[in-house]
Design brief:
Elements (H helix, E strand, L loop, with lengths): L6 H15 L25 H13 L2 H8 L3 H15 L4 E3 L4 E3 L1 H26 L6 E7 L1 H8 L3 H7 L3 E7 L13 E4 L8 E16 H6 L7 E4 L7 H10 L4 E5 L2 H9 L4 E5 H4 L5 E4 L6 E10 L6 H15 L16
Parallel strand pairs: 3-4, 3-5, 7-8, 7-9
Antiparallel strand pairs: 1-2, 5-11, 6-9, 6-10, 6-11
Length: about 350
Amino acid sequence: MPRAEGEGEAMECVRNAMTLHARRRPCPRKFPKIASHPGENAQMFDWENFRHFLAVARAGTLSGAARALQVDHATVSRRLTALEAELQAALVERLPRCCRLTAMGAHLYEHAKTMEAAAFAAERLVRADHTPLSGTVTLSAPPVLVTHLLAQRLPDFRSDYPGIRLSVMAQAQQVSLSRREADVALRLVRPTEASSVVRRLAQMPFALYASRDYAAAHRPEDWTFIAYDAQFADMPQQQWLLDIAGKRTVGCELSDIGSHLAAARAGAGVAGLPCFLGDADPAMQRLEHAGNMFSRDIWLVVHRDLRRSAPVRAVMDFVAAAVAATPGLGLEPPVAERPK
């Protein structure tokens, strides 16, 4: 097939940069060596500069790339300038509020993603063959599951697997398993990545809760509701709660479920909470309501290349066991329960 317009120029830039970089010190990151032409001795490309270019292309700003890479703004700018000097081509237009790829930058970005994916794939295959129960495994999970389900069980995991360092990221946003942003993830939305292996662990039913004093002092028509703030307006549990509230007052907006629980416990109003969380708190009372039952699925996801890695399997088994052992979580549909 003929090459797309500009593709040949992009690859020529890469070859030129390899020749220039042969005189520089090797990059400490473990990325593949790439030969300029078949049969030549491969020269190490400065992948650290290239990695910063990829981050700028994805974030659209230098500051966004800096946050993603956990470096300062000046480092990103310096790395990007160095890459453009190596390639002898302008890759990014630095505009007042954003960075925009040039035509050459856009062509090079597509090649960069392919090379990055190949490098990560090689790393995953090496990790999957690493059989000892040791090393670091990164788990990404929603804050409510980390704080109220997994954290208290970490001593047991440490006792069972002293050689594994478990790094847990409590975050609402989804991460990329293909780019090794995490090894294992818990999600409340079914993953769709073709490279992922997924398992539905449980349903997490929700119900309305208030402090016992609040429930005794307020009739349902006088309830004040505790909702999410604007950044989480599209969350399914927010829509469910607002449908039940109807024209009744939303008294406060908070960004996470833990804050909802604390506010409801203090008497601020009625909150929509996971049943495993609300039922476990003796200060809270589950409330009857005329709305629909609601639940979210909990999904366990791992990249297919890592699913047989012994340390990764240990973390997956730990997470699955923790979910299975938690009252109020299960694969059966939520059942209406009389208020306590």
